[in-house]
Design goal:
The complex is a heterodimer of chains A (298) and B (296).
Chain A (H helix, E strand, L loop, with lengths): L1 H37 L1 H5 L2 H4 L4 E2 L4 E2 L2 H32 L2 H15 L3 H20 L7 H25 L3 H9 L4 H12 L1 H17 L2 H6 L20 H9 L7 H39 L1
Antiparallel strand pairs in A: 1-2
Helix pairs in contact in A: 1-13, 4-7, 4-10, 5-7, 6-7, 7-10, 8-9, 10-13, 12-13
Chain B lengths: L1 H22 L12 E7 L1 H17 L3 E6 L3 H9 L5 E4 L5 H9 L4 E15 L7 E3 H9 L16 E5 L4 H11 L15 E3 L2 H10 L3 E6 L8 E6 L11 H5 L6 E9 L4 H10 L2 H9 L9
Parallel strand pairs in B: 1-2, 1-3, 5-9, 6-7, 6-8
Antiparallel strand pairs in B: 3-10, 4-8, 4-9, 4-10
Classes of the chains: A mainly alpha (298), B alpha/beta (296).
């Protein structure tokens, strides 16, 4: 009896350990696969071609700058839309809203996060893009801005959900102490609760941005997919082509192991490194802050 | 948290691998069993037509099952090369390098012209422009003409719409309109051309936006957009696309639509291809806005 129990426990511990490590293994395997399929591109396409300004793969123009620029401008725009709205919503739900409103809002936000992005894409084509064109008098509504708004909408539920959890886990005593010292509710939120939940809020923002930069279908449907480098002052109001949309639109057609195929994987590699960079930056920022907090407390 | 992430990874992995299995359709035209299955994939231009044919043919022959999917001509031909389909649909002819890849894989593509198609140039109904020459279309799409007033319209910026590069329609338009059919001409689409992933995307934007010019297969043109008459010379005559003008060669932007099989087909696939050439099947072609092949 006793030995069976030990045996089961042994198996279970191992299983949990394996699933723990599997995250690392999968990331490494994906990275290896991207390297194997993407690196040949460097040999097949000249460096000058890769950093040229033209992306037209069926005629062997493989300039990546328009795609990288497109992804960056759309993601940056999404961050500008999503971060303030997301954090404010999280603060409202966690700190301001009465209990009953909170019980409705939190699940609703999570349902919003579950809407398939292709549905949002359709709404974007049929409602958002025409509205933007009329409102701002643009040549076309299928622009970086439309992509940013949709991506912002996709990122907001993630940001709200994670940030609200972080705010919620700030001990009650912090708020009580602040209020007892005569701080207003606004001062308590801005000076005590938010800074205390800082690492969680930062994680929320990074997860949201990660969600935005990797999103494909919605952005492909509304951003126009014109491979232009977004360097003009009004580029935000013009069509752009993102890296994800390029991979999605073209991967179905390429012959395996052709140059175009390798370049698409190379784009995947660039995308992977960019989101890895964002994650490392975020976690190191969290780490630095935690150390400082520990120093103050001790 | 760690376990959470890894669980998600595991779930993703399971999902992805099951997706892979689901989409892995193997060609199986087994004559031993009662039901023969034909896997048919490729050109989005042809997909509605192929579906209509398959539906009708399955009514006539209940022991044949035909699965039809789109994805683009390149996708269909790639699938034929990889041996995952019985018939590939294409709105362009197979390229020499694709034939080479097929040969390397032990596949011998056999070509059939199954219908004809014309590319219609479409604009918003508010746009006063009625006719354009091929040269003007080339100049618009290559970025030399940027305002509608240069071709007799209002003072509006031209927004160019195109299908994605994996669409056979895109390649046909590039070669026959932008490059005027000259193989030495290396003109490209203007970089600010919007590449939309679907016909629906082009129709939706054209319906709404008076600045745009778009193109699509004649079969996809909806009544809520305006079709432009195309001519080869400014002082010549301009022709609207229709079954008659395509078949008698007056409309200049027309092409053949193809099906490809691996080797000379036998059994159910051969029967199906032969049926497609009959007047009964070609009547469906007319219904869908394409142009039937001339009878021999």
């Amino acid at each position: 009896m006793e030995s069976t129990k030990n045996w089961i426990e042994y198996i279970l511990t191992r299983l949990i350990k394996i699933s723990g490590y599997s995250a690392i293994i999968f990331v490494l395997m994906i990275f290896y696969f991207l390297l194997r399929e993407g690196l040949p591109a460097i040999g097949e396409v000249s460096f000058a071609n890769l950093i040229s300004i033209r992306w037209y793969p069926i005629e062997n123009y493989f300039g990546l700058l328009p795609l990288i620029g497109g992804s960056l401008i759309v993601t940056l725009g999404a961050a500008i839309f999503a971060i303030p709205i997301g954090i404010c919503t999280a603060v409202f739900i966690a700190e301001v809203a009465p209990r009953w409103a909170r019980d409705i809002l939190k699940p609703l936000v999570e349902v919003l996060g579950g809407i398939p992005s292709v549905v949002l894409g359709f709404l974007g084509i049929l409602i958002l893009a025409p509205a933007l064109r009329r409102l701002l008098d643009l040549p076309t509504g299928l622009t970086a801005m439309a992509g940013s708004i949709l991506l912002g909408g996709i990122a907001i539920p993630t940001i709200v959900s994670v940030a609200e959890d972080a705010l919620d886990s700030v001990p009650r005593s912090y708020r009580d102490a602040a209020l007892a010292l005569g701080a207003t509710q606004w001062q308590t939120i801005w000076r005590v609760t938010l800074p205390a939940a800082r690492s969680g809020v930062l994680t929320a923002i990074m997860l949201g941005i990660g969600r935005a930069i990797g999103e494909t279908i919605a952005v492909m449907m509304v951003s126009g997919n014109a491979a232009v480098i977004p360097v003009k002052w009004n580029s935000f109001f013009l069509p752009v082509r993102t890296m994800t949309a390029t991979i999605a639109a073209e991967m179905g057609e390429v012959a395996k192991n052709s140059t175009h195929y390798h370049v698409l994987f190379f784009i995947g590699l660039v995308l992977f490194l960019i989101s890895l960079g964002i994650n490392i930056a975020a976690s190191s920022a969290v780490f630095v802050q935690r150390r400082r907090a520990e120093r103050i407390l001790s | 948290m760690k376990i959470g992430v890894s669980t998600i990874c595991m779930l993703l992995f399971v999902l992805l691998s099951s997706c892979g299995h689901a989409s892995e359709s193997t060609p199986s035209s087994s004559h031993t069993s009662q039901i023969s299955t034909i896997v048919n994939k490729g050109s989005d231009t042809l997909v509605n037509l192929a579906l209509a044919w398959a539906e009708k043919y399955q009514q006539l022959n209940p022991n044949v099952e035909i699965s039809v999917t789109g994805g683009g001509s390149g996708t269909g031909i790639a699938a034929l090369i990889n041996g995952t389909v019985d018939i590939a649909n294409a709105s362009r002819q197979i390229k020499p390098e694709e034939i080479q890849q097929a040969k390397d894989n032990g596949v011998n593509p056999v070509e059939y012209v199954v219908a004809r198609d014309a590319i219609a140039i479409i604009v918003n109904t508010e746009n006063p422009v009625n006719q354009l020459t091929i040269q003007q279309l080339s100049d618009i799409y290559s970025g030399k003409i940027n305002n509608w007033k240069e071709v007799g319209g209002e003072d509006r910026i031209i927004v160019r719409l195109s299908r994605e590069t994996n669409s056979g329609t895109h390649v046909f338009f590039l070669e026959n309109v932008i490059r005027l059919g000259d193989p030495n001409n290396k003109t490209l689409f203007s970089t600010d051309t919007l590449l939309l992933p679907s016909s629906e995307g082009i129709t939706a934007e054209t319906r709404d936006n008076p600045n745009v010019i778009g193109y699509d297969g004649l079969g996809y043109v909806t009544p809520d957009v305006k079709v432009i008459a195309v001519g080869s010379k400014l002082d010549g005559f301009f022709v609207l696309p229709s079954a008659d003008t395509v078949n008698n060669g007056q409309y200049p932007i027309a092409r053949d639509l193809y099906m490809y099989t691996n080797g000379q087909p036998t059994g159910a696939i051969a029967d199906y291809i032969n049926w497609i050439m009959t007047p009964e099947a070609q009547a469906i072609v007319t219904q869908l806005g394409f142009v039937p092949i001339a009878k021999p």
